[in-house]
Amino acid sequence: MRTFSAWRGRADTYLVVPLVVLVLLLAGPAKEFITYGYWPAAVAKADMLLYVVAPLCAIAGAWEGGRFRRGGIRCWAVVRPMWRIVLNSLGPTLVMAAVGVALAVGVMAPAAASAPGLPDVRLIGVYLLVVTAHILVGYGLGVWLAPALALPISLGLSYVWLAYPAAIEPFWVRHLNGFSFESCCNIADVPATRALIGSTLVALGVVAAVLLALSGGRRLLAGAAATFVLAFGAAVTVVWPLGPEANQPRAGSPRCAGDRPALCLWPEQEAARGRIDAAARVSRCPAPSPRAEACRTQSTSASRPIRRRRT
Q: 162 and 131 in one domain?
């Protein structure tokens, strides 16, 4: 009964079902933009579904922060470190975040299931870290603000940070939130390493800053601010050279075979080499058309010698 009562008081219990439903509903439109048969593209397009996962997880974090605030735990003589208390409180919320990320990647996986290789674990790791940062920001808002303010602010702040940078310049701003990979990737590209590192630095800076700030004390608050500023500055330095898209040319080169025409294909295309070769050879021989036949007839008749008629 205690376990049931504890879960009944958590926001995760009520948000996990809408999270699953919304991810499944949005999966259909998101699949229209996938480069099929390529794992990096399938995993990168999963970030189009995480626009739902991160804000809902931020709300759950804000709710748990409000419970922490109402319990007055900061006024107790607590022996355990604050970060352990926070992470213990957010355990189910972190599980919900992992479920959301796994579901988002899973619904995109069939588009690349037949391709060689495995899903890009770097992207999945960035998604998990970024959603964790959103949860901790929501938790901090729940601790410091009343629920009537913390819940809507955590939802709005999470969504704005995910969606708005993609619409503004300079371009480096959009590579800091971990959700700039929706334009990646065609088969000759991979996710940009600079975008992955920049997003990781910002998320780690947010996580560390919130945990330090929740621990209390002026020195820790100053340390939290300094940690976030340093992490954010390092991330900006890393992503500064990037353009509007978070991709880069993949390592290696396609394998070329055949002659007239020579086909250069990536490993994901090798299974279709025969069909592509046949189509390429057919395209070199244009089909006859009435106009071409008339031109050939005219040129043939013009080349015949003219014979003089006898009178």
A: yes
